[in-house]
Design goal:
5-stranded parallel β-sheet; 17 strands; 17 helices
Length: 436
């Protein structure tokens, strides 16, 4: 195990070389009924782009991917390939699926380095769309609509667009420059970005419609982290994991100082949760100099939602896992000193100088509370229709991604966003037809 101080934020994997990519692509069996494509939430043209890679036609491979995805370099790195495309690959029956994720990453990176882009920029005559939030859902809607003739402006509350891709996924899993690169590519389609603009504070839905937008898309994700409602929750030293990850990202971008981070060198830390956010937080803490990090999870490894590959990486980094530990009470006097848990062997207290919560999140209500007519369910998730797909209970306002379907993977947010983009186009075209 490498010492904590030497664990870097550099990317986990270096990817495939050209030679490796071509050889890996040649392993594809070209199935008549490709299960890999069925396993991809956005039905990416996987067999087609892999065949192109096997022949050395990287520009053609890039074009196949671009037909479905605005974020290939992102998806190639953070998609749950083991559960989706690669998990569905016929060769996975022998435990050796084609490395589809690494091939997609290779194509996206090669296309960028070689400045390959053959897409035509269409005139923006079909309508004016406002997109609120620049995470994977917002970027997908923006890119898809811009490609078919809509003028799109994306509003982002933070200093840079990217949402969870930039501020929620650590550098070692998704380098920030990769996110910025993907956003610049989306900009080439004519998408405009307006940062430091909080909708619901600076502007609201009514104001945006007054500015001439034909439709709006809410893709703000789940911005409010859930708390663990047990005794001692008011103690100092209990921190939200999402906040930790956002602050580390800001620190990495030189936007805050080291002293503003909620972690001190040498601290013994616990992370409560069983998803990828918990794993990301734990691995990030070690990289920031934590003395030790343990993940506390109420279940077993078998029902943990985090990907096996992420779990394996965390173990390799030195993260410890406490299985079947159910939090009962935060312990301390003013400052946190431990966590009382129930285990199959009885109750015990796990010492800790800082505890991070990664137990889920829910939507903020800033947008909904500053406008009328947008209904939400009992948990604050926006209610949408099937026709036109994704429209809320307010005419012309659409929503998608985690703010509707609860937290999911990047590509699942993209899947729904693509359907909503089609719904927006259908709605705006119909309204303009009636105005003739």
């Amino acid at each position: 195990m490498t010492s904590n101080s030497s664990i870097e934020f550099s990317e986990d994997s270096s990817g495939l070389s050209l030679h490796e990519a071509v050889n890996e692509a040649k392993r594809c069996l070209n199935c008549k009924q490709p299960k890999c494509k069925e396993g991809c939430p956005i039905a990416n043209n996987i067999p087609e782009f892999i065949r192109a890679v096997s022949l050395g036609n990287f520009g053609e491979a890039r074009n196949y991917i671009a037909e479905k995805s605005n974020l290939p370099a992102v998806c190639g790195r953070v998609c749950a390939h083991e559960l989706q495309c690669e998990g569905s690959c016929v060769l996975n029956q022998k435990g050796k699926p084609v490395k589809i994720g690494l091939l997609e990453r290779f194509v996206a990176d090669f296309a960028f380095d070689a400045n390959i882009s053959h897409e035509k920029i269409v005139s923006k005559t079909r309508g004016k769309i406002g997109v609120i939030g620049s995470g994977p859902a917002g970027l997908t809607v923006a890119g898809d609509l811009a490609k078919i003739g809509f003028s799109v402006t994306v509003f982002e509350a933070l200093p840079e667009p990217g949402g969870v891709l930039l501020y929620g996924i650590p550098e070692f899993r998704l380098p920030k420059e990769i996110v910025r690169r993907e956003i610049k590519q989306i900009e080439t389609h004519g998408v405009n970005f307006s940062v430091n603009r909080t909708i619901g504070a600076d502007l609201n839905v009514d104001t945006l419609f007054g500015m001439g937008y034909d439709a709006l898309f809410i893709g703000t994700g789940t911005a409010v982290s859930k708390e663990l409602d047990i005794p001692g929750k008011e103690l100092i030293g209990i921190v939200q994991a999402n906040y930790l990850l956002r602050m580390i990202a800001l620190y990495g971008a030189n936007q805050i100082e080291r002293k503003e981070l909620p972690i001190h060198t040498g601290e013994h830390s616990l992370v409560i949760g069983g998803g990828n956010v918990a794993i990301d937080a734990a691995r990030s803490l070690l990289r920031m100099g934590a003395g030790s990090v343990s993940v506390v999870y109420r279940g077993t490894r078998g029902n943990m939602s985090a990907l096996k590959s992420e779990y394996d990486s965390a173990v390799s980094d030195g993260v410890k896992f406490l299985w079947e530990h159910v939090p009962k009470e935060f312990v301390g006097e003013g400052q946190i000193s431990g966590l009382s848990v129930t285990t199959p062997s009885g109750e015990l207290t796990v010492p800790a100088e800082k505890i991070y919560l990664a137990i889920g999140s829910r939507p903020a209500n800033r947008i909904v509370s500053t406008t009328g007519g947008i209904d939400v369910d009992d948990n604050g998730y926006v209610i949408t229709k099937l026709r036109p797909y994704g429209m809320t209970t307010r005419k012309g306002v659409f929503a998608g991604g985690d703010v509707v379907h609860r937290p999911a993977t990047v590509v699942m947010a993209m899947k729904e966003a693509k359907k909503v983009a089609a719904g927006i186009a259908e709605y705006v075209d119909a309204v303009k037809l009636l105005e003739l």
